[in-house]
Design a protein that fits this description.
The complex is a heterodimer of chains A (about 70) and B (about 500).
Chain A (H helix, E strand, L loop, with lengths): L1 H5 L4 H19 L3 H5 L11 H18 L1
Helix pairs in contact in A: 2-4
Chain B lengths: L4 H19 L8 H6 L6 H12 L2 H14 L12 H18 L4 H8 L2 H34 L3 H50 L1 H9 L20 H19 L1 H8 L4 H10 L1 H11 L1 H9 L11 H9 L4 H37 L5 H28 L3 H25 L5 H21 L4 H22 L5 H4 L4 H6 L1 H13 L2
The chains are: A mainly alpha (about 70), B mainly alpha (about 500).
Chain lengths: ~70, ~500
């Protein structure tokens, strides 16, 4: 297993990282709206934490695809 | 090197203003809940800034800048893949359950979900860890004041104690969180000033790359090859992103405590999530300075590389900016010290004193005990700080101790919240088995801590599942509000728990 791992190219890291960010973003979107807004004083769109999570993951994907 | 003139004025003004501002919040502390959880009144933006203030300490400035000097931008993984996804996980899965459970500490939550033994192990771990790092933080603050203001070290230690103690002892979490907001602003202003001036000096980003890339070709790559002995990319993903980072952001008492003081469940979640935005900019403050130091002075070797940040302050900054950046440095340190102090007092009051020594006393009694314990920890830190000089590896040793527990702790917390079939014996034996695995791999096999974290997490997860399946399921009444599926499916329970959390316990 050690030899197999040692043979993995560097770009695999970027692919796994981007997939990881996508999984987190999709997971966040699968949280029910009522759960996300629980305790919020109103239902304004900017309070949708799924959007915040998606913006964060989009920035991360951009960074990891660039550097 | 000591500072004077306008720099001295900025630093002294900052050191006087912070305790006065923090002391103001004493008026809001009437109960134990006010003291340890800021009366559950914190808005999301205060929580997020306090979380980052707590997270970034002076050691991060030194260590991250030194790491960037050695490894390049790969060091930023600790702030990006090693933080941001875990903060989302924490905000949307863990934090709501901690908050709704109405607990004061993470060990208290684990005690409810599993059993008293799990709570004791976790409480002792956090109690000892937080107390020991206090001594290290105090010594660092004392050294900085000693070096830059030119005052004797014992005076520096006392000064640190007075600055932090005044508002932490009196105002509790509210004072700590509100001062953290100011400290974070100071950190960012000072850090950005340093980075902008540094980039201007080396000819911008292109100049920085041109001066480093020819001799250090990997310094502008986020992932380093698998044969890198310190931060190979697979270790960064498996150990850091999948285990250590979630363990830190989902289970660290000092981090989580801010969200427990939120005024609503939404504020608790939003506070943790929004903290990820400033967190993404932290490499600008701590990683870029390391690269700037390398560009200007590529001759630092060995332990000298960890002095990259102070070298930059000494050699780059003009009068006025040096004071501002030093204040930012102190802000990073003080915002970590006050949070650690407050969290140590919370764990020792709630999980040790209240659980084992004096049960069912009045609210005022525990408020008094909390304040006394905070004072005790201030005095302890002063006494313990010089000891850290005799044992320079003590901070690393404490971090290693924590990392041995982090994988297993995250495994049982994840299963505790995510799987209703996990039993108290699964949690306890999983935790112990995970610690045994990590200790063996770390001490006997000498494995990298990134891989130790991964395998101890996997081991604890498997043992917890196997033992849980072999033992009697927990009654639903015990799990209500503590496990993901149960709350999501039962609106009534959700309401009851929200009321319970809002009313405190």
């Amino acid at each position: 297993m050690g030899d197999w791992l040692a043979g993995l190219p560097l770009w695999w890291g970027k692919v796994i990282a981007v997939l990881f960010f996508l999984v987190i973003a999709i997971w966040a979107w699968r949280r029910p709206r009522s759960y996300i807004y629980k305790g919020a004083p109103d239902n304004h769109g900017w309070r949708d934490l799924r959007v915040w999570a998606s913006v964060l993951m989009a920035i991360q994907i951009l960074i990891y695809m660039t550097l | 090197m000591t500072i004077g003139g306008i720099d001295l004025f900025i630093v002294v003004a900052y050191l006087i203003a912070i305790p006065i501002f923090g002391f103001y919040f004493k008026r809001y502390v009437k109960t134990e809940e006010d003291y340890f959880l800021a009366g559950r009144m914190l808005p999301w933006w205060v929580i997020s800034m306090s979380i980052i203030g707590t997270n970034i300490g002076a050691y991060d400035y030194m260590g991250a800048a030194g790491g960037a000097y050695r490894f390049g931008v790969a060091q930023a993984n600790y702030e990006w893949i090693g933080a941001v996804p875990a903060m989302i996980l924490s905000a949307l899965l863990f934090v709501p359950y901690y908050w709704k459970a109405g607990v004061y500490t993470v060990p208290e939550f684990l005690g409810r979900r599993y059993n008293l033994a799990v709570r004791i192990i976790q409480a002792l771990l956090w109690g000892l860890f937080l107390a020991c790092v206090l001594g290290v933080f105090f010594w660092a603050a004392g050294l900085m004041l000693n070096e830059y203001l030119g005052i004797p070290i014992w005076v520096s230690l006392l000064l640190t104690a007075v600055i932090v103690g005044v508002y932490t002892i009196t105002g509790g979490l509210a004072a700590v969180a509100m001062t953290d907001v100011v400290q974070l602003l100071v950190m960012f202003i000072g850090g950005v000033a340093l980075t902008v001036l540094g980039l201007w000096t080396v000819g911008g980003w292109e100049g920085l790359v041109a001066s480093i890339a020819p001799t250090h070709p990997n310094h502008f790559k986020l992932f380093l090859p698998l044969d890198d002995p310190t931060i190979p990319w697979l270790g960064m993903i498996l150990g850091l992103a999948f285990v250590l980072s979630p363990a830190w952001w989902c289970c660290h008492q000092a981090i989580i405590q801010r969200t427990l003081g939120a005024r609503s469940e939404w504020d608790a979640k939003a506070g943790m999530l929004f903290a990820a935005f400033p967190k993404m900019f932290i490499p600008v403050l701590v990683v870029l300075p390391g690269l700037l130091a390398l560009s200007m002075n590529p001759n630092l070797t060995g332990p000298e590389m960890d002095r990259a940040f102070p070298w930059l302050i000494r050699n780059l900054l003009p009068a006025g900016l040096a004071g501002l950046v030093f204040a930012a440095f102190m802000a990073a340190l003080i915002s970590s010290v006050d949070s650690t102090l407050n969290s140590a007092a919370t764990v020792w009051t709630r999980d040790i004193y209240q659980r084992f020594f004096v049960k069912n006393a009045s609210d005022q009694h525990y408020l008094k005990v909390g304040r006394i314990l905070t004072l005790v920890f201030v005095l302890w830190a002063i006494a313990f700080a010089p000891v850290t000089k005799q044992f320079p590896g003590i901070y690393v040793a404490m971090q290693s101790l924590l990392s041995i527990f982090q994988g297993p702790t995250f495994a049982i917390t994840l299963l505790g919240i995510g799987w209703s079939r996990a039993t108290q014996w699964g949690g306890l034996i999983g935790l112990l088995a995970g610690v045994a695995i990590s200790s063996t791999l770390y001490f006997a096999a000498g494995m990298s801590f990134l891989y130790v974290a991964w395998w101890s997490f996997v081991g604890a997860l498997i043992v917890n599942i196997l033992v849980s399946l072999m033992t009697k399921p927990e009654p639903t009444s015990k799990l209500e509000g503590l496990v993901y599926g149960l709350v999501m499916k039962n609106g009534e329970i959700q309401e009851i728990l929200s009321d319970r959390a809002e009313g405190g316990e």
